[in-house]
Amino acid sequence: MRLLLTEDDAELAQSLIARFGAQGYEVVHVGDGLRGLQLATGEHFDAIIVDRMLPGLDGLELVKAIRRHQATPIIYLTTMSGIDDRVRGLEAGGDDYLIKPFAFEELLARIRALTRRTAAAATRLRAGSIEMDLVQRTVRRHGQPVELLPQEFRLLEYLLRNADRAVTRKMLLENVWDIHFDPHTSVVESHISRLRSRLNAQGAADAIQTVRGTGYRLLGSH
What we know:
This protein is of the alpha/beta class. It folds into two domains: 120 residues, Response regulator (Rossmann fold, 3-Layer(aba) Sandwich), CATH 3.40.50; 95 residues, Arc Repressor Mutant, subunit A (Orthogonal Bundle), CATH 1.10.10. The strands form three sheets. Strands 2-1-3-4-5 form a five-stranded parallel beta sheet, sandwiched between helices. Helix 2 runs parallel beside helix 3 and helix 6 packs across helix 8. The two termini are 31 Å apart.
């Protein structure tokens, strides 16, 4: 489980990193809203924790900006406890709101609840003419079945979860192959090529765009 923590209190952040780590979570920490937005829209996270009072881009604007791109569960962690503050935070796109000071056990329980709801709802992924059923492990394009090998399925799943966003070779290696170094092989390129062939087998237009100097993008409409 991967969390993004946007919190400018370094001491609190280190405490949360340690305690979530003890529960098996990976926590990526940033101390300002602009960097938080960059990561939230460029990488995959299972949930995002947002402080309302952030330098660079405040928590409210950060959540609004994230919501223009994706539906990752977001919980505010803040001292702003007024009813109006909560309403504005939730209307901006937040899913939950926890007031500081707080008990870690409550934060953990809320994170687990948010991610359970998301996991239960996200049994199907779709971008344009491509549909993936995560329970049945099937893929269709224009209603026709597409047979994929397990690693091709994982690759397409990651692209679908990041539809319309450029993903780098490094991101693919880390998230699809769990490789955190450059193996100096063409494993990504060869799998992308085979995936393209399978998706385009019935004469459909290419859904995977090569982004020169960056990586690849699965087009959300095709």
